[in-house]
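**Paired protein data**
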Amino acid sequence: MRPRRAAVRLPNSWLPGADWADRYEVLVLAERITAAEAAWRVLGSAPRWVRSLLSFRNRLVPLFGLNATADTRHSDLVASLPLMHSDDRQTVFGYDDPHLLFRLVVEVGEGPADGQIVGMTTLVRCRSFMGWLYLAAAIPFHKAIIPSLLTAVERPV
């Protein structure tokens, strides 16, 4: 199935006061998986164009006073996002930058028939004008990256 944009509910307990949020979902019929398994599949198998784009981002953002995440060549997770929480239903990654707070929530819920809905919710809370500028520049790329990543959730590891 193809990922689709879904409604996001705010406020969200993982980032109260989020200024911006979006959510994409995909229906998985093949097998039952946990949120941690879904996160590993989604973030551990990013296409080359996503890895290249994030590598470029990591070289560019320090010039503007934003934190670059760890080098993705040395990690199995996209952008080496720090793990904040994980259970069968939710896996949460995030970081707090001086300019913005970021959370990525991978959730698994019941779907139709024997399927599951795997969703990715992105939450951002801007702390400064630079945070707002970064967010505005990142949104168009984000809208292409997240659905692309979600297509990997149906591929077994």
User: Anything to note?
Assistant: The chain has three helices and six strands. The first strand starts at residue 4 and ends at 6.
